[in-house]
Amino acid sequence: MEDHTPELTTLQQKVAYMVEKTFPGENVSGRAFSDLVKERGGQLSHSYFSNILAGKVTHPSEDILKALGLGFGVDWRFFKEESEVVDDVVAGLQFLAKRRTGEISGLAGRGLDDDGLSAELLQFALSLLEETKEGKEGKEGKDGMDGKDG
Fold it and tell me: How far is 14 from 94, CA to CA, in rounded Å?
C-alpha cells in the first residue's frame, strides 16, 4: 500500500482523492453520490458533483462543501481552499486502511477530547507501525525468527 499523500490543493483533487479512498475499486456515479448525500440529510445535485470532479467548479458555497463532507463522512472543512483538516483526514484514512488490512488491530487513547487523535498523533502511530514492520522483516530475514518477544 502506498502511504505518500498526493497533492491536495484544489477542490477537484480533494474530491477525487476522497472518491478513491472512500469507495475503493468502485465507480461511483454523480447520481449515486447525490443520493448518498440526500440520505445523510444534505443536498447536492449529481450534475454539480460531476462538475466538481471535472474541475469545472472551483469555489462552491459552504453549503456544497458541507454536502461533500456528509457524503464522504468527513469534516466539511477538508474541502475548503486552505484547509488545516486535510492532514487529519489523510492520516485518518491511512489509519483506517491499515486497520482494514489487519496491520493495526486496535488503538486505545486516554484523555482524548471529542476530536479524537490529532493528525500528528495518527502520523506518529503510523510511523511506529512502519518501524515495527521493518524491524520484524529484518529479524525474520536474519535468524528465521518471527520477531515476537517471548
Answer: 15
